[in-house]
Amino acid sequence: MAAACQAQQAARMNWLLAFIPVTLVLEHAGVAAPWVFFSAALSILPIARLIVRSTEHLATYTGDAVGGLLNATFGNAPELIIALIAVNEGLTEVVRGSLSGSVISNLLLVLGASLVAGGRGNLDRYSSFLSFGLLAFATVLFLIPSIPGWEGDPDRHSLAVLTIPVSIVLLVVYLGVTWYSLRRHSALHVASDEEIRAWSLKRSLLALALATAVTALIAEILVGSLEVFAHKVGLSEFFVSAVIVAIVGNAAEHGGAVVVAFRGKIALAGEIALSSAAQVAVFLIPAVALLSWLLDPLSLSFRPIEIAALAGSIVYTTLVLFDGRSSRLRGGMLLSGYAVVVVAFFLVGDR
To answer: Are residues 279 and 73 in contact, defined by beta-carbon separation less than 8 angstroms?
Structure first.
């Protein structure tokens, strides 16, 4: 019965795949940005659905924690591509804003929407607090290049050099924690009859990789149309990058975590949101900073409002989920917190 329901849901979304070639045609034909944005947004929906299904099948082999880790890894690929393209074009504020906004949106928006969709349940308390610890550690390290950048040019070369050791430390910590987590969860995982009905491991990985590649392509087009549209309606470049671009780059996690939670898999949904936030902070951000030296060195000199929003979001989410239980009320609290951050970003603008 559940399999039939999933097949019907997938069939209802399959027609949206037609918007992928439509988006490519509209982009190359120079059609107005709002139409390109609308088409690209519809294109991402069935792709996100494929990522969800692939991750769920992988989770039957690896367990919820590793399944969430894989989803976060593939789901963050569009953000890496978008960030490097922006670095190449010299849009450093857009890069930093989209990356910090990505962490915040995963913590408050994605996790909050997942809890609202899933209702009562339990999260993996150990994994949750591990993610919170990584996020807090990364935020403290970000202060090293950020504080000097609050006076003078935040993109000066000395700050880009100061960013290198910070990035290396974060990547080393990420690799160590990932290795430990994989060993812990592989030891705890026990095969079940569900694995027999799941996609093969090869098919799941290929589907996830294909969906991620297409998401990266469409997300790049969507970001381009969003930026043009946002300037036309008078939004600040910082707001566009920290809110709109961040949400677009996280489209896979946004849709995936909510759908998974709606199916009652609260633990997996929590892993998707929290592991994605942690991965952006301790893997994606330092990776972008180091890879930027191949294009144009990037300093991780985040603005005061970004550091305050990051720290506040981590503390607030930790307090809301301290006992490891989920509910719609707690999800609503997280969404309300994200609304406060969005308003603050709007009021600060490019100042």
So the answer is: yes
